[in-house]
Specification:
The complex is a heterodimer of chains A (231) and B (203).
Chain A (H helix, E strand, L loop, with lengths): L7 H4 L8 E4 L9 H8 L6 E4 L11 H4 L4 E6 L6 H8 L4 E4 L2 H13 L3 E4 L13 E3 L3 E6 L3 E11 L5 E2 L8 H7 E11 L19 E4 L17
Parallel strand pairs in A: 1-2, 1-8, 2-3, 3-4, 8-10, 10-11
Antiparallel strand pairs in A: 5-7, 6-7, 8-9
Chain B lengths: L4 H12 L4 E4 L5 H6 L7 E4 L3 E4 L22 E7 L2 H9 L5 E4 L3 E3 L4 E2 L2 E2 L3 E2 L5 H7 L2 E5 L11 E2 L14 E3 L3 E5 L4 E6 L13
Parallel strand pairs in B: 1-2, 1-5, 5-10, 6-11, 10-12
Antiparallel strand pairs in B: 2-3, 3-4, 6-7, 8-9, 12-13, 13-14
Helix pairs in contact in B: 3-4
Classes of the chains: A alpha/beta (231), B alpha/beta (203).
Chain lengths: 231, 203
């Protein structure tokens, strides 16, 4: 069965209200722009969204946040996302802030069959409340794997098997989320032939990818343009 | 007299020495990347997945997919590498990054740091700060000595929710360099003309 889909709408057709959704990207870098736009057009609600920033400055996942489609969010950083901060302080959305390293490791663990792990991160803070503590060389807390029904991922290149190649720092959480979700939808700027991505250059084996489509109209927004010699 | 932001960055750079790896937090610490001497051979890591950050790009080299954890465009040095977030934090948590430099709201004498939320007012989230303070070889906090109300940010005990417990090695402020030792702040160095009596250090 082919993994190639026509577009985001087709690839996300069976995503339903109440499901959990992982979304790749760091800020706006490497976000699945086509998938997010498709979500804005879908009649869905009560999503649990797992994403580092839940968009930023009115862009990215903020588009579905302001449509009140997100019931619960897991993320590590909401600075620069005033819409989320506002919904959070008004208790319109349930936000679980997760330290970024723990966030990525919980996602990785889900994909790789690790049920839980001990980490020193968060010990002695609000994050540790209600969690099992154990003393190793240093005190640690137990953190559990984080799964999802869907992941929406953007890669620079994919081949028809779903082997992925990411550009520069656009990789971030995406390969981890692809491993953790039951259905991973990947949008790409370049859909290449089998063998075009050399085996040693594959960043994520296609085994973890269920659906692929060639994206279009990428904005690839820069959040903070800083150039040499400018203040 | 106080140190400028640039002076503070240079004070931190002097602590690094050569051939080390560092992670720079959002805010004041980003200034460090721009003032680093390339000859010092310091590898700058950014937790969004790059080792080998090297200042800012030009109009010709700028790329929307090449950013630091502050979501600012960057350039990279020869020998740089890209990786996913799990490996990035593995580097940090695994103790492979020699120094991290973070901004701070409060640091106390017990080596605690608070820098991620003000209850009921401001929630930015901790980002990677909780991982960094528990993983990096040495944790340096770079911040102004007083907040905008003139209150000292070096305290006997943090009032805000902690980012990390018993984790801070050094604090570099515009007034000097201070080492929390568990019971008090030792003065490592003072900026020119600064008097200890004006610092409101906890007794």
């Amino acid at each position: 069965m082919s993994k190639i889909y026509k577009n985001a709408t087709e690839a996300l057709a069976d995503l339903k209200s109440g499901m959990s959704l992982m979304s790749g990207g760091f800020g706006l870098c490497g976000i699945a722009e086509n998938c997010i736009d498709a979500l804005t057009q879908m009649d869905i609600k009560d999503l649990t969204v797992i994403s580092n920033n839940i968009g930023n400055s009115g862009r990215g996942l903020v588009k579905i946040l302001v449509q009140h489609k997100i019931k619960k969010a897991y993320c590590s950083y909401v600075g620069g996302n005033p819409d989320l901060e506002e919904q959070m302080l008004n208790k319109e959305i349930d936000v679980e802030l997760v330290p970024q390293g723990t966030f990525s490791e919980r996602i990785r663990a889900a994909g790789l069959g690790i049920r839980a792990f001990y980490t020193p991160t968060g010990y002695g803070t609000l994050i540790a409340e209600g969690k099992e503590e154990k003393m190793f060389d240093r005190p640690c807390i137990l953190e559990e794997a984080l799964h999802a029904d869907f992941a929406i991922i953007k890669a620079q290149k994919a081949d028809p098997y779903g082997n992925l190649w990411f550009k520069e720092t656009a990789r971030n959480f995406s390969p981890l989320m692809a491993m953790a979700a039951k259905t991973t939808v990947v949008e790409v700027e370049e859909l290449v032939e089998l063998g075009d991505i050399k085996p040693e250059d594959v960043h994520l084996p296609g085994l973890f990818v269920q659906r692929i489509f060639l994206g279009e109209n990428y904005k690839n927004d820069i959040e903070f343009l800083k150039l040499e010699g400018e203040a | 007299m106080s140190w400028t932001k640039e002076d503070m960055a240079d004070q931190v750079i002097a602590l690094f020495g050569k051939d080390v790896s560092v992670n720079l937090g959002i805010g004041l610490p980003t200034l460090i990347a721009e003032r680093m001497d390339p000859a010092a051979n310091v590898m700058i890591q950014s937790e969004n997945g790059v080792l080998g950050v090297s200042g800012r790009p030009t109009k010709n080299t700028v790329s929307p997919t090449l950013i630091n954890a502050g979501k600012e465009t960057i350039s990279i040095a020869k020998g740089a590498s890209f990786f996913d977030s799990s490996l990035s934090f593995g580097m940090i948590r695994g103790g492979h990054i020699d120094y991290c430099v973070l901004g701070g709201m409060e640091v106390d004498a017990k080596r605690n740091l608070a820098n991620w939320m003000i209850p009921g007012k401001k929630v930015t989230g901790m980002g990677g700060a909780m991982d960094l303070v528990n993983g990096a070889g040495s944790v340096i906090i770079m911040m102004t000595h007083f907040n905008k109300h003139g209150d000292a940010k070096l305290l006997d005990s943090c009032k805000l929710p902690l980012t990390g417990k018993d984790v801070v090695d050094l604090v570099v402020t515009d007034k000097g360099i201070f080492k929390p030792n568990g019971t008090k702040f030792e003065i490592v160095k003072l900026a020119p003309g600064v008097l200890e009596v004006d610092l409101k250090l906890p007794a």
